[in-house]
Amino acid sequence: MSPVLLASAIGIKIFMGGPVLYKEKRVGYKGNEFDFYKFRTMVENANDLKCGLLKKNEMGGPFFKIKNDPRITKLGRFLRKFSFDELPQLFSVLK
């Protein structure tokens, strides 16, 4: 898996710039918080752009989903298609 992780990280750094990983606090089993890691697949200011896209939300409640989300980069679409963006979560599992 090291070659896939390395190629993904290099691709993100070259084509998208900025941070390679997306980190967020999540709540897990029995309410325990943990750091959630993914490869970054969206533009850096994706959370700022979300406010302008709320009208296009296709989900209800706390979920936000747009079929062709303009915040996702071309490389990000590739990483998501093959679930490579999820690989950094392995480190959370091992931890």
Brief summary of the model shown:
Helix content is 38%, strand content 15%. The protein is built from four helices and two strands.
Gross geometry: globular
Cα-based radius of gyration, to the nearest Å = 14 Å
Instruction: Kindly state the percentage of residues in helix.
Output: 25-40%
Described by strand count, sense and barrel closure, the largest sheet is:
2 strands, antiparallel
Strand order of the largest sheet: 1-2
Task: Detail the poorly predicted runs.
Answer: none
Strand content: 5-15%
Topology:
Blueprint: H1 2-15, E1 21-27, E2 33-39, H2 46-53, H3 74-81, H4 89-94
Can you put this structure into words, describing what you see?
- This protein is α+β, with helices and mostly antiparallel strands and 95 residues long.
- 38% of the residues lie in helices and 15% in strands.
- It is built from 4 helices and 2 strands.
- It has helices at 2-15, 46-53, 74-81, 89-94; strands at residues 21-27, 33-39.
- A two-stranded antiparallel ribbon has the order 1-2.
- Strand 1 and strand 2 form a beta hairpin.
- The chain is globular and about 40 Å long.
